């Protein structure tokens, strides 16, 4: 395909997008008005399924399929990073040098580590009730683990970070989301329909139906994915170097 043809295709596509975008903008409600049809419907649907956090209801109930796409993007990105940064024949592992961490930094990191883990678990577990959820809580959990790298050294991090286990957890979190989606078919409804289990009692942990389950699956996948991602980059920065003479 020549450059001229590619430019014509780009121009036609751009004009089509501009036309659709302009038509959509013309149908928008007036700025600053008190009519919010999407928000009103989202709140109504969240309350119908006993989900106190409307954002969680949108992410894991009303638009759960979109969230599956976002989770899969992260999964694919980590998989690509693992393949790209794998050790090659021209590289070898070297033992990392012991770190010298100031005592104040060490104490602060080690004290903050269990607090950060508890906060991450809380954010994941209460995603259907309050701001937060699997994506945010998963990042907090992965970050908490790496406080060992800041407060101690790389060896301490390696002892609590068996990469193979976290790679399995990454895949298991992705698979759990898909299984919960397929359970909707088993229940006689649609994919990812919030009809597999009861909706529970409003504003309690046992509420929202499948929302907290999907939230936990995402939390597991995100936490493990970030750990694996950082592990590969840290390996390249700390342990892997090119063979001499290559």
From TrEMBL:
Organism phylogeny: Bacteria, Bacillati, Actinomycetota, Actinomycetes, Kitasatosporales
Keyword entries, A-Z: Cell membrane, Membrane, Transmembrane, Transmembrane helix
TM region(s), chain numbering: 72-88, 108-129, 135-154, 175-193, 213-234
Domain Na+/H+ antiporter MnhB subunit-related protein: 105-227
Family: Belongs to the CPA3 antiporters (TC 2.A.63) subunit B family.
Membrane topology: Multi-pass membrane protein
Signal peptide: none
Major location category of this protein: membrane
Protein name: Sodium:proton antiporter
Taxonomy, superkingdom: Bacteria
Record's keyword annotation contains Zinc-finger: no
InterPro entries for the chain: CPA3_antiporter_subunitB (IPR050622), MnhB (IPR007182)
Gene Ontology cellular-component terms listed: plasma membrane
Locations listed in the record: Cell membrane
